[in-house]
Amino acid sequence: MDELIRKANVLVEALPYIRAFAGKTVVLKYGGKAMTDPALKEGFATDVVLMKYVGLSPVVVHGGGPQIDQMLKRLAIEPKFRQGVRVTDEATMEIVEMVLGGTINKEIASLISRHGAKAVGLSGKDGGLIQAKPFTKAEWAKKLGADLSTWGEDEDYGLVGDVQAVDSSILKNLQATNAIPIIAPMGVGKDGRTYNINADLVAGAVAAALGAEKL
After folding, report:
1. What's the pTM value of the predicted model, to 2 decimals?
2. Is 22 helix (H, G, I), strand (E, B) or coil?
């Protein structure tokens, strides 16, 4: 009973916010501890479903760094980072795609669906949702606030990418069916290769493409 009262109070307090954002798209970046703690995972799913029920249109972009590291170590592959960027060779990209586009993406979609909303998991590769371009040190330094002077010119980051474009029609079609899109942050370049993309960059690009009210 106490929990029901607490939730009712939260809804009352949120009424001005609900009125302001009813019918609007909200892009959620999901990552960190909330993805590994069972209670926090449940809480995130119920929050997303609540947003849907009160009239918002949530879109989720998720990360998965810790889970990728766990799988790499399980396969005796040591994770490598340079200036906070994951070095992504062909072998690592296969693991990234399996963990992000498979395990994590489907788990999030399933959890949200189990709590009463329709969720559809997809990766940035699906249907050409995210067009990627190769990572460039200058662009990332600007976007992520890195100190460009610390980035060696001869360093190779492998299949690390950035967002070239987002096909918003794919997401809008899902929203039209009352579904919540769950997006794994990767994309395909003009060279046909799959690129690992920072989830924050994907969330920002998706929000811009959809004209989201809030990120």
Report:
1. 0.86
2. coil
